[in-house]
Design a protein that fits this description.
Radius of gyration: 22 Å
Distance between the termini: 22 Å
Strand content: 35-45%
Order of helices and strands: EEEHEEEEHEEEEEEEEE
Number of strands: 16
Helix content: under 10%
Number of helices: 2
Number of domains: 1
Strand order of the largest sheet: 6-5-4-14-13-12-11-10-9-8
Shape: globular
Length: about 290
């Protein structure tokens, strides 16, 4: 988020970007989390990391064949904890004839945010880092270390700490913890923030800590369903603008996952082939951990 403060000087309206810093790096854990067991796993940790990264690669490929709806709400809060500004957008994520995702805006009322503004990094984080996927291809960019084992609702998970090995210019990364299903070797919870924050004077661009929950949608893969971020951006004074604190929340929901497919009628000499029909529909998903808003 970029901070924005309005100051009048000699009757001229001047806009200044304030320095900002989020209040914390992690979201509080959900009440469904059990105690953390730090004993070593039965399998070698490097093997576990390779296994879940490979499964995440499969999931990333599978996600390319799904359409869904994404709803984004960003709010600033006043001293009473009530919203005093909002950014809201609902997008339909579809698939074109070449198999590529595209976005269609379904709802986008004018933003009422006045103390901060949405940046390109914010939109990039919404698309790529809030629904964090750690694939085999991305794994060399990160240091991944074993933390322990923990129960998340009815799911036994391995917990790993994740941080970028180095920060490349103009690149953004995830830093925090991930919870991996011990059976399916897929990420089910992500807790951390996007890094790095832009701290350049007059161009500060900061992100909130967030937590993302996944659940099984098709009985095979765990899909992001709910992300929530919260914190206070601390705006320090600079040349021509004053210091201020801006409490904020950010919530992203992902709904209506549907496997993309087309009904194809097979013909021979102008006549339909017997037994031809649309592909089967996915089965109902089994119970899975539910986020607690």
């Amino acid at each position: 988020m970029r901070g924005r403060v309005w100051i009048f000087w000699l009757l001229l309206g001047l806009t200044a970007m304030a320095q900002a810093q989020s209040s914390s790096n992690f979201m509080p854990l959900d009440s469904g989390f059990g105690p953390l067991d730090t004993s070593p796993p039965t399998q070698p940790v490097p093997l576990l990391i390779q296994q879940f990264a490979a499964k995440e690669s499969q999931f990333e490929h599978a996600l390319e064949n799904y359409t869904y709806t994404r709803t984004v709400k960003v709010e600033t809060l006043n001293s009473d904890g009530k919203p005093d500004g909002e950014y809201y957008e609902v997008d339909s994520i579809g698939i074109d004839s070449h198999g590529r995702h595209y976005e269609t805006v379904l709802q986008a009322p004018p933003s009422t945010l006045t103390r901060v503004s949405m940046s390109e990094s914010d939109f990039s984080d919404i698309e790529h880092r809030l629904p964090f996927v750690l694939t085999t291809r991305a794994l060399p960019q990160y240091d991944v270390s074993y933390v322990g084992q923990q129960q998340v609702d009815q799911v036994r998970t391995y917990v790993f700490a994740v941080k970028p090995k180095k920060i490349e210019k103009h690149q953004r990364y995830f830093q925090g913890r991930i919870w991996v299903d011990a059976k399916d070797h897929q990420i089910v919870v992500v807790d951390g923030k996007s890094v790095p924050d832009d701290l350049r004077r007059g161009q500060q661009d900061l992100s909130l800590p967030y937590i993302t929950f996944r659940q099984q949608v098709d009985g095979q893969y765990w899909f992001p369903v709910w992300t929530h971020g919260a914190g206070t951006l601390h705006f320090s004074a600079g040349d021509g603008y004053l210091a201020q604190n801006v409490p904020m929340t950010e919530t992203v929901t992902y709904t209506d996952y549907k496997r993309f497919g087309s009904s194809v009628k097979l013909l021979f000499n102008g006549q339909p082939l017997q037994g031809a029909g649309p592909p089967p529909k996915p089965q109902n998903p089994p119970p899975s951990p539910q986020p607690q808003p």
